[in-house]
Amino acid sequence: MRKDSYKLWQAAGSEARRTPKRSEVDPATTWDLTPIYADDEAWEAAFAKTPDYLKEIAPFREDLTKSGARILEFTRLLEQQIRELEKLYVYASMRNDEDTSVSKYSGMQARIGLFLSQYGAAVAFAESAIADLEDEKIEEFYRKTPGLDHYRRRFDKMRASKPHLLSPETEEVLAGASHIFGGGEAVFSVLDNADQKFPTIKDEAGQDVEINHANYGLLIESRDRRVRKDTFEQYYTVYNQYRNTYAKTLELQVNQANYLARVHKFSSAREAALFGTEVPEAVYDNLVDTVNKNLPLLHRYVDLRKKLLGLDEVHNYDLHVPVVPNVELKYSMEEAQEIIKKALAPMGEDYLKILDMAFSERWIDYAVNEGKRSGAYSGGCYDSNPYILLSWQGSLNNLYTLAHELGHSCHSYLSRREQDATYANYPIFLAEIASTCNENLLTHYLLATIDDQRVRRYIIMNYLDGFKGTVFRQTQFAEFELFIHQQSQAGKALTADFLKDAYGELNARYYGPDLVRDPEIALEWARIPHFYYNFYVYQYATGFSAATAFAERILSGDNAKRDAYLAFLSSGCSDKPIPTLEKAGVDMTSPQPVDDTMKAFEHYLSLLEQEA
After folding, report:
1. Per-residue model confidence (pLDDT) at position 181
2. Which of the residues 59, 127, 397, 399 has the least number of beta carbons within 10 Å of its own beta carbon?
3. For the chain, how far is it from start to end, CA to CA, in angstroms?
C-alpha cells in the first residue's frame, strides 16, 4: 500500500526521481478530514454563517458586566462560536498544508484568517471589561450565578493581564490587525514551502535527485560523503539566494513581537510571551545557563563523531550520518506502528486504544508529495481528531518522529476527553513533554529488545543525535532568538549579514573547535520556522528534560507514577503549567531535571567513547 504512493519517484532509470503530485498518492497514506467537514462545500456553508457571529456578539458590548448571568451567557456563546471557528481554520489550514501551491486552499485559509482577525477585534472588549471588575463584584457574581465559577481560572488569567491591557478601542484596533502583524510568518511560509525550488544532485547510484524539504533529512544522512556534502551545499544555495528576503521576514516577526510587547507595557517580547504561558522567565534563563555549562559535552560529541567516522575534520554535513557502519534500519508504516505500540505498552491499555484509533481512523498524513508543508506536526481542535502530518521516508528518524507526534496527539485526545472546551488546550510549555516521553520510551524498548551490538550502538548514537537536536540545538535557537529580539529592541537592523555573523559565531561556540565553520551553516536561521513562533523553541529542551524524568517514573513499574503522568496528560490548562507538573512529580523550577538529563547524555556518550 505505501509502496504504491512512491512508485513515481522511486522508479529506476536515468531520469530524475520525481516527487509525486498530491493527486497521485495513495489516499490510504493521507489523513481523513471528513469528520471535520464532509467536503469543501460543507466548509463554505459553515463559513457563510460567520457574519452572524459578529451580530450575536455586538449586544454584549453595552452591558456585559451588568450581571453574572450576562457574563455567563456571553462566555458560553463565545465558547460555542470559537469551537466552530477552530474547525473552519483547522480544515482550511490542513487542506492547504497538503499542497501549499493550491490557491483554493490558501485562499480558504486566508479568508478564515481574515475573519478571525475581525472576530478578535469584535470580542476584544470583553477581556478589558472583565479585568476592570472590582474583586468584590466578581466574587458576588460567582456566588449568585450558578455555573459562572467554572470559568474562574479563565477569568483570573484575564484579570492578571490588567496592567498590560490598553483601552478597549485600542485592543480592538490591534486585534483587527493581527493578520497584518503575522505578515512575516505568512511570507516565510509561502516562500519556504511553495515558491522556492531546490537543485538536483547525484545520489549514491549517480542518478539525479531533486532536493526537497522531505528528502533533505534522508540525503544528509547518506553514507556517501559526497552526497551529503552536495546536499548540504546545494540546499543552502537557495537560502543564500533569498537571504535578504528571509532576513526581512524574520525582522518583521521580531519587530512585531517587540512592538506588541512595548505597547502592552512589557519590558521585552520574551516577558510578554512567557507571561502569556504563565512560565517564569527564570526557567528560560536556567535552561540556557545549564546548557552552556555543559557545552563541553557537545564538544565531546563532535569529537566522538570525528573518531567514529574516521575523519580528519568534521563538517556540519557530517553531523547527521549514522556513525555505525552497515546498519540500515528501514520501516514500513505498518512495521513502525507495531513497534511503537510495543514501546508504549507501559502506558497502559487505554493509551494503546488511542494509538489504534490513530492508525485505523486515518489521523496520520504521511504521503510524500509536491508542495506539502515541510516538517511534521500534530494538529486539530476540540471537535476534531488530533491529526498528524509528516512525510514518510522509512528511516529511524521517521520512526521517532511518528512516536513524537503520537505523543502530542494522545496528549490532545486525553485533554479533550477529560476537559471541556474551556480547559482542554494545554499550554505550549507542556506541549513537548508527551512527545519526547514517547521518544524516550521508544529508545528504552529498542535497547531492551535488540541484541545486535552494532544496532545497539546505532540506537545509542541516535539518542545522542536526538539529544543534540532537541536540547543543545533548540537551546542554541532559544539563545539566538532572545539575542535578535534584544538587538532589534536596542535599534539594531537585522540584516542578512548581521544575522549570518551572529549565528555563525553562536554555532561555533556551541559545537566547539573540532567542527569546521562551513559558511553555509551561518544561514541556518533562514530556514527555521520556529523563529516565527514567538519564544517557542526553548520548550523543546525543557520538555525533553521533564520527559526524561517522566519516562524513568513510568518505567519504574509503579502504576501510581504512571497514573500521575496520565493525569497530567488529561489536565489541559485546568491549572498553571508549573503546578501541573509538580502534581505529576516533576519540578521544573529546579535545575535538577536539566542536570539529570545532561547526566543521561553523558552516560550514553561515555559508553560509545570507550569503544571509539
Report:
1. 80
2. 59
3. 41
Q: Where are the beta strands (DSSP E) in 179-337?
A: 200-202, 208-210
Provide the β-strand partners of residue 365: 389
Q: What is the pLDDT of residue 184?
A: 86
Q: What is the pLDDT of residue 322?
A: 85
Q: 463 vs 201, 325, 512, CA distance in Å?
A: 29, 17, 20
Alpha-carbon gap, residue 284 to 51, rounded angstroms? 41
Angstrom distance (rounded) from CA 22 to CA 38: 19
Cα(97)–Cα(112) distance, rounded to whole angstroms?
Answer: 15
Query: Of these residues, 171, 221, 251, 405, which one is catalytic?
Result: 405
pLDDT digits (tens, 9 = 90+) for 57-77: 999 999 999 999 999 999 999
Task: Identify the pLDDT of residue 565.
Answer: 98
Largest CA distance in the chain: 78
Q: CA angle at residue 118 from 485 to 52, to 5 degrees?
A: 155
Q: Are 572 and 357 in contact (CB under 8 A)?
A: no
Amino acid letter, 560: A
pLDDT at site 404: 95
How high is the pLDDT of residue 172?
79
SS3 180: helix
Contact predicate 597/546, CB 8 Å:
no
- Extended strands (E) in 132-205: 200-202
Q: Which residue has the cell 528560560?
A: 284
The crossing angle, in degrees rounded to 10, of helices 243-263 and 183-190 is 160
Model pTM score: 0.79
**Burial zone of 330 (CB within 10 Å; 0-12 exposed, 13-18 middle, 19+ buried):** exposed
CA 129 to chain centre: 33
Q: Which sign, positive or negative, has the C-alpha torsion 146, 147, 151, 155? A: negative
Per-residue three-class SS string for 289-321: HHHHHCHHHHHHHHHHHHHHCCCCCECHHHCCC
**DSSP letters for 33-56:** -TTT-SSHHHHHHHHTTHHHHHHH
Active site residue 361: no
Amino acid occupying residue 566: L
pLDDT given for residue 1 in this prediction: 29
Contacts of 89 (CB under 8 A, 6+ apart): 109, 112, 113, 116, 381
- Angle between helix 577-584 and helix 428-449 axes, rounded to 10 deg: 30
Residues of the chain with pLDDT under 70: 1-17, 612
Q: Residue 297: CB partners within 8 Å, gap ≥ 6?
A: 598, 601, 602, 605
Distance in angstroms (rounded) separating the CA atoms of residues 486 and 284: 15
Count other C-beta atoms under 10 Å from residue 376's C-beta.
18
Return the pLDDT at 16: 47
Q: Enter the C-alpha cell of residue 165.
A: 491591557
